[in-house]
Design a protein that fits this description.
The complex is a heterodimer of chains A (170) and B (182). With 170 residues, chain A is an all-alpha fold. The model of chain A has no long low-confidence stretch (mean pLDDT 75). Chain B is mainly α. In chain B, 78% of the residues lie in helices and 0% in strands. The radius of gyration of chain B is 18 Å and the shape is globular. The chains are: A mainly alpha (170), B mainly alpha (182). At the A-B interface, helix 1, helix 3 and helix 4 of A face helix 2, helix 3, helix 6, helix 7 and helix 10 of B.
Chain lengths: 170, 182
């Protein structure tokens, strides 16, 4: 650090207070050093400008514009989460249909075993709905309704098919 | 309804409760953005974005802590990121005609010699140096607060402020000399 740097530091830091002994040495240095005198003059001009130039005023309708934009952005976010929700629900419903169909397909002629398998599959599906419900609270409830419907339809189709098979067996 | 109530309500998802906050801190955030970005239109967009980010981040905000530094931290980071983005993807500068169209009463004030000169010199500084000066002089923050706000040590902020002041003083002086010569 040169002598000039040392004094430059104190010139620029003047507003934060200079110890008396440094001030005396600085005054003495300024009498002999043109570069530091220039810096002191530049800094004084800047300090004055900084004091005079205030923060600019924002646009008058800033808050109202913000509220309008926030409403638009909220709507966009809601639409996005609805899309995610529908996607998860559709995938879940397709998966549960396939699972129940597979259980039904594998079920032996003895109905109680088929029902037991069906219960196990439903348990798995309920677990899935519970997990979805944790991520998207509303989705969990709707997913359960969709799964219930899927289960009911599969059950009905199973019963109908069994009757058809029974007819052929006869 | 005081600030804490507004923030609590806004936190529960009521954007209308956040409107008084935008009103209250709009000038500070807009001022910071305009000084950092240098263009009124960009500063307006940035202000809207910053308040939206703050609103969305409210669940993570501790209401017992002061709101102003928290908001200005978001604003500072946004402006620095925006300047970094601009560096990567240079923008088309506004033509004088576009500038005129974008002019508003505040821009007229900005045209005042001193403010315009200062803004011109400020824009020549590095973004972090610019930010330290703005927070120190237009927001009146202490070195400690600026350090907390920017995530740097007090001594780092102090030396950055020293360099920024010195550079700005020199830039302003050169500009004035140039104008006097022309």
């Amino acid at each position: 650090m040169s002598v000039h740097d040392h004094f430059a530091y104190w010139i620029v830091q003047a507003e934060e207070g200079i110890p008396a002994e440094v001030q005396a040495a600085l005054d003495e240095h300024l009498c002999t050093c043109a570069a530091c005198r220039q810096l002191a003059a530049d800094w004084a001009a800047l300090a004055e400008t900084l004091e005079q130039v205030t923060l600019p005023e924002p646009p008058p309708a800033l808050a109202a514009d913000w509220l309008r934009l926030a409403a638009q952005r909220n709507l966009r976010l809601q639409r996005r989460s609805l899309r995610v929700f529908v996607l998860i629900l559709s995938l879940g419903s397709v998966a549960s249909f396939l699972l129940l169909f597979w259980v039904w397909w594998q079920a032996p002629a003895w109905p109680i075993l088929g029902v037991a398998r069906m219960i196990l599959a439903l348990k798995g599906v309920l677990l899935w709905a519970h997990i979805v419900g944790k991520v998207l609270p509303v989705a969990g409830v709707v997913a359960l309704v969709a799964l219930g419907t899927a289960g009911l339809l599969t059950g009905l189709s199973w019963m109908t098919q069994r009757q058809v098979f029974a007819f052929y067996r006869r | 309804m005081d600030e804490t109530d507004c923030l609590r309500r806004a936190r529960r998802g009521d954007p209308a409760a956040f409107e008084p906050i935008v009103q209250e801190y709009g000038r500070e955030v807009f001022g910071l953005c305009l000084r950092m970005l240098g263009e009124r239109a960009a500063a307006e967009d940035a202000t809207q974005e910053i308040f939206w980010r703050a609103y969305r981040a409210l669940p993570r905000y501790d209401v017992r802590r002061p709101f102003r530094p928290w908001l200005l931290t978001i604003a500072s980071r946004y402006c620095l990121d925006e300047l970094r983005r601009r560096k990567r993807r240079p923008q088309v500068p506004l033509t004088p005609a576009m500038r005129d169209r974008a002019a508003l009463p505040e821009e007229a004030l900005m045209q005042r010699e001193q403010a315009a000169e200062l803004q011109q010199a400020l824009l020549k500084l590095r973004p972090k140096a610019r930010l330290v000066l703005i927070l120190r002089y237009w927001h009146g923050y202490s070195l400690e607060t600026i350090a907390a706000l920017s995530g740097e040590s007090r001594s780092a902020v102090k030396s950055r402020l020293f360099r920024a002041r010195r550079a700005l003083a020199a830039l302003l002086s050169h500009q004035r000399e140039g104008m006097e010569q022309t």
